[in-house]
Amino acid sequence: MINQFRKLNPVNLIFLLAYAFFMRAVIFYRVPNHLNFDFLEPFARPLINIDFSNAFTPITNIFIATVLVYIQALIFNRIINNHNLLAKPSFLPGLMYIAGTSLFLDFMVLSPALISNFLLIWVIDKFLKLSKSANSITTVFDIGMIIALGTLIYFPFMAMLVMIFLALLLFRSFNWREWIAGLVGFVTVFFFIAVYYYWNNNLDSFYQIWEPLGNKFPAVFKINYNDYLVLIPVAVIIILASLQLRENFFRSFISTRKGFQLLFFMFLVAGASFYLKPNFSIWHFLLCVPPGAVLLAYYFSNAKKRWFYETLFLLFVLSVQYFLFV
Fold this sequence. Notes:
Helices cover 62% and strands 0% of the residues. The protein is mostly helical. Helix 2 packs across helix 4 (58-82) and helix 7 (137-153) packs parallel to helix 9 (176-199).
């Protein structure tokens, strides 16, 4: 299968769609009785009066989520290929993106994090363009606005503001205007929200939006390790990919090296941002999938022994299906 997706062949569009539905076979087989979907954070709902909480039946919810993941995979695949992060253009980024969004049952339904991934993929594209832009102030301003929009959908998305400064450190020489531009873009969106709350004599509620920023990072985690055994094959592939990347790191283009450094920090920031949501769900970690998928794709794009990487991917798929059904 990996060898097939190493080719930029249009027929892989069909295979990718089939793979997306195959990886979700368990949830189509065991459809939950009820699924909620909150499209926006509570503080944003008065502005956009759309209620999707009970708009879809469970099977419709799962089907739409699968289609959205497929669309995201295609967009993500194109962006990674355009920026030449892998050895050659392929469908591996899209394949790994779908694989990453199939690890847990909670990943397979509509959620704010799933919708936010459209914006996260867009942000990744803009970050990777920073080194190619003569004047990136407008780009950084746009990134700030995109992060603000993502925050309206899912509050922990705000943590991506940190990535603006990390990206500027990696890709640009210091320019204070660029550092300010991202914050201005973010504040612009919330300025209009503040005006709305002010007009409705409810400015106290606007201040309450920022209360999660005062949360302390948890020192103790309650984890049922049996629920995360599915991550073992993922960890093995990530270790192999890291070794492969380390071997080729200084032989790669500077832009490629910086791109992988950016995605590594984005993975960490996306994972750690869960503390901004007091009652977060496992689907929060969908935000880690785009940067993580690039690393997985890098290994399979550069692996040499076909029997090994094909067997490894087959074991990965079978283990995911096993733990989902069991």
